[in-house]
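Example 3.
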Amino acid sequence: MSADTRGRILGSAMELFATKGYAQTSIDDVLRRSDAKPGSLYHFFPGKEDLLIAVLEAHRAGIDALLFQPAWIGFDDPIERVFALMARYRMLIVASDCEYGCPIGSLALEMHKARKSVRERISANFAAWTDAVHRCYLQAADRFESGTNLRELAEFTLTTMEGGVMQSRTFRDVSYFDRSVKQLRQYVQALMKTPSRRVAAPKKRVGGSKAHPPGA
Amino acid sequence: MSADTRGRILGSAMELFATKGYAQTSIDDVLRRSDAKPGSLYHFFPGKEDLLIAVLEAHRAGIDALLFQPAWIGFDDPIERVFALMARYRMLIVASDCEYGCPIGSLALEMHKARKSVRERISANFAAWTDAVHRCYLQAADRFESGTNLRELAEFTLTTMEGGVMQSRTFRDVSYFDRSVKQLRQYVQALMKTPSRRVAAPKKRVGGSKAHPPGA
C-alpha cells in the first residue's frame, strides 16, 4: 500500500485513458499495466471514477513541470513561449504517428454525461492552460494594440490547439495542426501594433530573445 | 426488414452515439431505442462498427440538407453564412444546456485506435464541412487581401468550431464558444482589405444582404 504503488497505478491509468480512452479502459487493464494487486487499487481508488478524478488532478498538478517548463526551455520571449507550447504538441503528434490526442480534450468529449466532480477537474485543467498562456500574452501586452482582449486570445489559443490536434489525428497528418497554428500566428500578428507584414518570421519579431533552444 | 426499419435503427444509433458516445452505447441500447428486433439489426448491421460506419455515412450524406441549408436560410452573404453556421452550433449548445458536442468531433477523439474505414469516414465529414466553408470564403474572395489562403481559413474555421464547442461543453457555458467565434470574426476582418475597425458589426460589412433571417 505504498505511495509508490499508488503512483504506479495512477501513471498506468493516465497512459491508458490517454491512449485507449476512459470507457475502453478496464480496471483489469490498469491492474495488468501497473502490476498491482486488486486490493491495492481498490484501497487507493474505490471506483473507476475515483481513478479518473485522480488522473485529472495529476494532470493539473503536473501541468507546469511536465508541460510548460519543458516546452519553454530556451524561450524567453513570451509570444514565442506560446508558440513553443504549440511546438510541444506538434512533437507529441509526430512522435505518435499522428495518433496523439490531448488527454484532457479527449476526456472532455468522451465524458458525455460526466458528473460535476469530473467536469470541474477537466475545467481546472483547461483553466490552468489558459491562465499560463494568458500570462505570456500579458507579459507582451505593450506589443498589442490597446483594447486587445488577451484573456480571450488565450482561450482562442486553447481552441486552436484542441481543434488542430483533433484534425491532425483524424487525418493522420500533422500539417492540419501546422496550418491552424499558422493561422493563429497570423492573427496574433494582426493584433499587434504596426504589423508590417501578415506573416512575419519569428526572428524578425522577437529581437534579442532566443527563437530556438540552444543546442536544439 | 424494411428500409424503414433500417432508418429507425440508424437514427437511434446516431442519437445514442452523439449523446452517450460510441463505447458507452450498447447494441441493446440501440434495439431498445429503435424498437427493432435483434435479427433486423444484425441483418442490416452485422457488427457495431458497421453501424458506426453507416452513422458516419448518414452524417456525411445529410450535411447539406440537415446542417448547411437550415443554417443559411435568410443569409445570402457568403461571410455571414459562415457565421450563421456558427450560430447554428450556438443554438444546439444552448438547446442542450451546454451538453452539446459535435457528433463527428466527439467520435474523432473517442476513436483512439480507429480502423482506417472509420477514420476515413470521420475525415470525409470534416472535409465536407471544410469544403462548404471554403466555398463561402471563395465567393467573397475579392474582399480578402490578395494572397490570403482561404482553404487554410476554412480549416481554421472548423478548428474554431470544434475547440469552442469543447470548451463550452466542459465549462457548461456558451460564452466560451461565443468568444472563440468573436476571435475568428476579428481574424476574418483583419484578413480583409482596408479593415476600418477590428470589430465591425456584421451589418456594416455585408451591405445589401440580410444579416438576420426574415421573421427571426
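The mean pLDDT of chain A is 90. Chain A has two domains: 1-46, 62-205.
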